Amino acid sequence: MVDQLPDSMTVIEIAEPGGPDVLRPATRTVPQPGPGQVLVRVSHAGVNRPDCLQRAGRYPPPPGASDIPGLEIAGEVVALGEGVDPAETGRRVCALVTGGGYAEYCLARPEHCLPVPGALPMAQAAALPETLFTVWHNVFQRGFARDGETLLVHGGTSGIGTTAIMLARLFGMDVLTTAGSDDKCAAALAVGANHAINYKTEDFGERVHELTGGRGADLILDMVAGDYTQRNLDCLAEDGRLVVIATLGGARSEINMGKLMVKRQQVTGSTMRARSDVFKAMVADEIFREAWPLVEEGKLRPVMDRTFPLAEAAQAHARMEAGEHVGKIVLEVKP
C-alpha cells in the first residue's frame, strides 16, 4: 500500500440524463482497492461513444460498476488490494475498466492492465484499451480475420475505425472503409486504408463489389446496423462474416435469410463492458501476446484527435457527438 494518498478526488459526474452539459465536476472519496484490485492515479482517460450513451441514459453501468463515466485510463498504480502482487506498485499502465475513468483515481484489475512502454505518451496509452479490446475481440476472435482477406470498416475515422484499419493492415489484410466526407476519406487513407468510400456520394455496396472484383468483403465491422445490415450482407463474400458492435442506425434489422444461407454468411455481435472479469482477462492476455509487441515496437499508435482537461469533459462529449473528430478524444486528468 502506498502512503499519503488523499482522502478525496475530483471526478466528473452525470447530474441527470441529458446532453453534454449534464457533466459536472464533483468531489468524491478516493476508492479503496478490494481483493484483486489496484488503484490507479489517472493521468489520462479516453472518451468513447458508450460514455455519451451512458450520459444520455441509454447505457447504464452494469451491476457493481462505478456510475462515473470512463472505460479506459492510463496512469500509475498507487495502491493494491489483497492478493495483488506487490510488484504492481508504481507500474505505468493503461487499463480497460467498467467505469470510473473520469476521475483522479480509478479502480482496475491488474489482469485488465497493459504495461505502458517508456516511449508511449500517457495520453496515447489512455486511447488504446477500449478500442484495442473491441477490435481484437470482434475482428480477430469473433470475425476470424485472416491475412490476405478484405475487411470493410464502417466509420473509418472513429477511434474504433482507425484502430481497426491499422491493426488489420499490420496483420496483412486489405482494408476498405467508409466515411462521411472527402476529407475524412483522405484521413482514413492516411491511416492506412487501401480504399475509402464516401457513403454520402457513393453506394458503398456497389463500390465494395467494384473494388473486390465482384467477390465482396470477407469481413465487415459495422457500427450502424438498422438498414445497413442487409446492405452489408449484399456486399459480403461467400462464407463472409458480419460483426456488429453498435446500432447507431437502429437496433432492428430485416434481412433476407435465403440470401444469407446461399452465401453461407455469418452474423455476430458483442458488447464488452458487461462481460466477466475472467473473459476480459483472457482478451487482455491475447492482446498482450499478439498485438502489444506492435505497440512496444512503435508500429501501432492511436490516431489522436484532441485532448481536453478533465473539467472540459462536456466539450469533449460535444465534439464526439458532432462527428467532427478523427481518431481518439482524451481527457487529461493529471499531467
Automatic annotation (TrEMBL):
Keywords: NADP, Oxidoreductase. CDD domains: p53_inducible_oxidoreductase. PANTHER family: OS02G0805600 PROTEIN, QUINONE OXIDOREDUCTASE PIG3-RELATED. It comes from Aurantiacibacter luteus. SMART domains: PKS_ER (SM00829). Gene3D superfamilies: Medium-chain alcohol dehydrogenases, catalytic domain (3.90.180.10), NAD(P)-binding Rossmann-like Domain (3.40.50.720). It comes from the Bacteria. Residues 18-331 form the Enoyl reductase (ER) domain. The keyword Oxidoreductase applies. InterPro entries: ADH-like_N, ER, GroES-like_sf, NAD(P)-bd_dom_sf, Quinone_OxRdtase_PIG3. This is NAD(P)H-quinone oxidoreductase. The keyword Metal-binding does not apply. GO terms for molecular function: NADPH binding; oxidoreductase activity, acting on NAD(P)H.
